[in-house]
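Hey, I'm writing a tutorial for new members on how sequence and structure tokens pair up, and I'd like a real worked example in the thread rather than a made-up one. If someone can provide the structure for the chain below, I'll link this post from the tutorial.
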Amino acid sequence: MEKPVKLGLIGKNISYSFSKQHFEQKFKKLMLSAYTYDLFDLQQIDEVAKLLEDADVRGFNVTIPYKEQVIAFLDELSDEARQIGAVNTVKVLADGRRKGFNTDAFGFEKTLLAHKKDYHTSALILGDGGAAKAVKYVLDKHNIAHKTVSRKSELNFDNLTSEIVKEHTLIIQTTPVGTFPNVENCLVFPFEGLSDKHLIIDLIYNPNYTKFIKNAAEKGAKTVNGYYMLEQQAEKAWEIWNLD
């Protein structure tokens, strides 16, 4: 009998996640009967220690709110993860050491390059969590100027004006606001500053169209959700788990 290979996702309130279905379909297609993928809903990051004690765990994905906190439980980071300061994929190496990677950056870069125009030279990043760090890394790589809008930053949701929005034609929404099941929730945002020159990337993928995306589309902006990014980062994670 084949040795079980356990993979999964750690996060908080993650029943909405597509990852389990995505990987279970992959295992079926590749006829990998020893592989399982589970959702590990942790109330606090310390609970990950118990998961890491399981010798059958080969790795896991990490989502909100643990992308930064999980680093304390790892032995090593990839170059990207170290530069970004956030991890969304963990691999348990053959010698038992735990290595953190960031495949969010890979997925976001693929999404950005598929949709951005030459005039998208300045961006607003809404939120400042782990996903926002991956977004900043990619924008820096492509020389796109950016400002962060968050509750605690100098530029925040109370003082963000439509004029500032007009000047930044690339908007990346990285917060969980509007994620299923809270689909009626939406960030306070001056949508009147948007135009058909704007590209809005909302990293949420469930629902397909958040209230934020709908409001932006009404102003003529081009809108993209997080589904393609999610698929791409998942494929990169799969590649990492299966590299010797």
